[in-house]
Write a structure and sequence with these properties.
By secondary structure, this protein is of the alpha/beta class. The protein contains 10 helices and 21 strands. Strand 20, helix 10 and strand 21 form a beta-alpha-beta unit. Helix 4 packs across helix 5 and helix 4 crosses helix 9. The strands form 5 sheets. Strands 1, 4, 8, 9, 12, 13, 20 and 21 form an 8-stranded mixed sheet that branches. Strands 16-15-14-17-18-19 form a 6-stranded parallel sheet, with helices on both faces.
Length: about 350
């Protein structure tokens, strides 16, 4: 049995990427929540680098767009229907969507690392459709309630914030420590904000673009540097660039026994200073998405320790997805958000965040 708030339309509009790499906005059936699922009316969807990569290249590694695919995995919205075994009282709840469907019985899920589940179905990863649509379904436990003071836009950005949280956890640093972050894109800035909230006293951000370096000081960095500049040793290094030279420089900046975390998507292979890693007993690891991060994200945003609204630099409607997916090429862009319930949005000025009490 499915509980609904009101009568819902049978169709919705969705932004679709086709195998020949053209984009369209199409009518699709509204999905039906299965047992344990909720149906969410999507409010806001952040544009991620993986979305633009699929649009420009049609694949990321082994994930290839072979059939029409709805993009988008950074999303928020309102629960409008629930499947069996879900409390109908959740209808009307504003939520941030954790866009994952792991197998709860897998060994990885059982030990808490459900992000590594080999049977994962992740939004906007072929062949799984994403959230650039009017509605999506998700497991009830992965629709995280948000308070009224958090905007729809900020709630959508819990997803990239979760990458920053997972990265800082892997870095193993805390109050008084020093971290070097390579890359001042959205993930690098998320890492810097989480580092500041974690009490790190020295947060160095390495970035070739002078404008981005300046901007990083507003998002947690205590100092910035151009790549290749000598640095005092740091306790941890996080690469959010995917650039081989940045990884090597970061490894060389670590103190003996330091930790390096690879987050940015780069080449499948790269040369690394193995003798340095061995002789300094450097711990080198990676981050693949996240697990168990949404409660931390909510606490950081609610307490104003992290500012996600300030990272939204452009807004688009669903009919403007082509522009939104190309917006990373606009100077000064940090994060674009698509509002799926409107066709077109005024992108010339940044509006006030859309909160429940303003809808």
């Amino acid at each position: 049995m499915i509980e609904k708030r009101d009568a819902l339309s049978e169709t919705m509009r969705a932004g679709v990427l086709h195998p020949d790499l053209h984009l369209s906005v199409e009518e699709r059936p509204v999905p039906t929540p299965a047992v344990g699922d909720v149906l969410v009316q999507v409010s806001a969807v952040g544009i991620c680098g993986s979305d633009t990569h699929y649009v420009r290249h049609g694949r990321i590694g082994d994930f290839v767009v072979r059939e029409p695919l709805i993009l988008g995995h950074e999303a928020s919205g309102t629960i409008v229907a629930v499947g069996a075994d879900v409390d109908a009282a959740r209808i009307g709840e504003r939520v941030s969507i954790e866009p994952q469907r792991p197998d709860p019985a897998s060994a990885e899920s059982m030990r808490g690392a459900y992000n590594l589940c080999p049977h994962m179905r992740f939004f906007a990863t072929p062949p799984v459709d994403g959230a650039l649509a009017g509605f999506v379904t998700i497991g009830a436990a992965f629709a995280h309630p948000i308070p009224d003071e958090i905007s729809d836009e900020a709630a959508a950005l819990f997803e990239p914030l979760s990458v920053g949280i997972a990265s800082m956890r892997k870095a193993g640093v805390g109050p008084g420590d020093a971290v070097l972050i390579a890359g001042a894109g959205p993930i690098g800035l998320m890492c810097a904000q989480v580092a500041r909230a974690s009490g790190l006293t020295r947060i160095v951000l390495s970035e070739p673009d002078p404008e981005r370096r300046t901007r990083a000081l507003d998002f947690g960095a205590t100092e910035t540097t151009a790549p290749g500049t000598g640095l005092a040793p740091v306790d941890a290094f996080i690469d959010a660039s995917g650039v081989a030279a940045a990884v090597t420089a970061g490894l060389r900046a670590l103190r003996p026994g330091g930790r390096a975390v690879l987050v940015g998507m780069g080449s499948d292979t790269m040369d690394l200073p193995v003798s340095l890693i061995q002789n300094h007993e450097i711990v080198l690891t990676g981050v693949f998405r996240y697990a168990n991060t949404w409660p931390t994200a909510r606490a950081l945003v609610t307490s104003a320790a992290v500012d996600l609204d300030a990272m939204v630099t452009a807004h688009y409607g669903l009919d403007e997805i082509a522009e939104a997916l190309d917006s990373d090429r606009i100077p000064g862009m940090i994060k674009a958000v698509v509002h799926t319930q409107v066709s077109r949005y005024c992108t010339g000025t940044r509006p006030e965040p859309t909160r429940k009490d303003r809808s």
